[in-house]
């Protein structure tokens, strides 16, 4: 069952009707309704294409947060072999909002790290909706340093509303953990490539995405603050999230123009959740291509280029 | 409900309140409510003489109090592209910038300077909370990079006074990218074997705390400073419970192992001198007030020689 977003309501009706007709035909009335159903399918496909042709930034935000969107675990299971999760920050706890471990990508050993949001109520609670606590970042730091020691490339998959704003997280140094994680990314002498697969929420995303190469899925977002948060601060009204999403330039297309990301990975029509397999495959190709670009580079060059990439950022503006 | 309460009392009140609050001369302590005379307050480094509350201090005032005889030279900061996103909320970003520049008399939210403290050459950067909440955008990023580069070129320690509500939303993702950018700057200083000392002042929050403000070799905070990633209001909304007294204040962070020291503003200069000299392997400083260094500063190569008095 597809879950429809509010702007997809007319589409839901069409697809629902087609489904109903088919169900009627199946229940053995003997009537052939396939032709009508196919006509509705055609209409629905046209509408889908129309809806997704020019998604507004706010609609993209909704697609990026779609509950059925493939999550980190789906990518890890499909794209990697021998994935062996490694747990804990060795200081305080294991944070399930971040998964990480050794795995093989194209048979080559790598370290893969990402935010996991969970796929149903129970796992979402366990994963804290992908909002990491300091332990999550400290685990990532530990794993990145291990990869660095053994010369393994690091792959990060970013999908978080942001770092968790909680009492314990603050007491245990949320900001320090994020700062150190960014610092660790910058110091790595191995390739670091990152894909924003859903939400790239502020510092919680930067902590993993300070990479040699950064890709974004077509309808994912990457922003300094959520549109709702920005609206409530600058417009004093959280309901102005559409305007805020527009102003923040948080879409993959705008960020590519600004030189903040390197490539956009196309999504199937109607968003990643409509064809998870194709989406995951496309991300796999992008990862392979990005790792290929960095292959054979020395530790010093990888580090120096990564730093320069971020130092140079902001020299490219949006054309008016 | 008669003419005495409706007409006479407001009139009397307005006369008295006007007399009680002559503008500019008196500042009310936001902690204890004591009225403080501006000159006395400035002499006391903007610390309330009654309760010890540390009020905001603008960068120029801070540098005058920090450097020997108040002498410093400004380090030029490369101007970033203005309004890269063409950002517009209820106001246009360039209009907000102009208003902030007019209100503060400063170009942007960070000032970088070099000079001597206790005859120890240092580079210092200070964030200006009164300029759009000290928010970190491309200029602040450029300022920190310029400060780091100057520190490395001249082999000086870098001292950074932080004060910010976080990243500047009007620069969107480019403000977020200042987190890695400023972290690169910090790394340059550290790799050159030079000390990087952060003085966290009220308030230091958000992306600023989650980047350069938490990466110091030594982390010192001013008493009572709010230091956090997520602000108390956001947390209360998330967990729906009241936070403990003093949560996220400097003393609380010290207790939780997040800071090296909490130091009163009047002792800060001496402490910075002591620490930087030890880390730089220099002999102990001669204590006390020092006259200005020789007529010409050894490497005063930028526009401003000495700052104009500014209020804190």
From TrEMBL, chain A:
Pfam families named among the record's database cross-references: ACCA (PF03255)
Segments forming domain CoA carboxyltransferase C-terminal: 39-293
Protein name: Acetyl-coenzyme A carboxylase carboxyl transferase subunit alpha
Entry keyword Chloroplast: no
Catalytic activity annotation: N(6)-carboxybiotinyl-L-lysyl-[protein] + acetyl-CoA = N(6)-biotinyl-L-lysyl-[protein] + malonyl-CoA
Principal subcellular localization: cytoplasm
Source species: Rhodosalinus halophilus
Annotated function: Component of the acetyl coenzyme A carboxylase (ACC) complex. First, biotin carboxylase catalyzes the carboxylation of biotin on its carrier protein (BCCP) and then the CO(2) group is transferred by the carboxyltransferase to acetyl-CoA to form malonyl-CoA.
Automatic annotation (TrEMBL), chain B:
PANTHER family (UniProt xref): ACETYL-COENZYME A CARBOXYLASE CARBOXYL TRANSFERASE SUBUNIT BETA, CHLOROPLASTIC
Low complexity bias (residue ranges): 289-299
Purpose of the protein: Component of the acetyl coenzyme A carboxylase (ACC) complex. Biotin carboxylase (BC) catalyzes the carboxylation of biotin on its carrier protein (BCCP) and then the CO(2) group is transferred by the transcarboxylase to acetyl-CoA to form malonyl-CoA.
Pfam families, per the entry: Carboxyl_trans, Zn_ribbon_ACC
Catalysed reactions listed for this entry: N(6)-carboxybiotinyl-L-lysyl-[protein] + acetyl-CoA = N(6)-biotinyl-L-lysyl-[protein] + malonyl-CoA
Organism field: Rhodosalinus halophilus
Cofactor: Zn(2+)
Enzyme Commission identifier(s): 2.1.3.15
Manner of cofactor binding, per the entry note: Binds 1 zinc ion per subunit.
Record-given protein name: Acetyl-coenzyme A carboxylase carboxyl transferase subunit beta
GO BP, sorted A to Z: fatty acid biosynthetic process; malonyl-CoA biosynthetic process
Gene that specifies this protein: accD
Major site of localization recorded for this protein: cytoplasm
Record carries keyword Metal-binding: yes
Quaternary structure annotation from Swiss-Prot or TrEMBL: Acetyl-CoA carboxylase is a heterohexamer composed of biotin carboxyl carrier protein (AccB), biotin carboxylase (AccC) and two subunits each of ACCase subunit alpha (AccA) and ACCase subunit beta (AccD).
Subcellular location: Cytoplasm
Zinc fingers typed C4-type, residue spans: 29-51
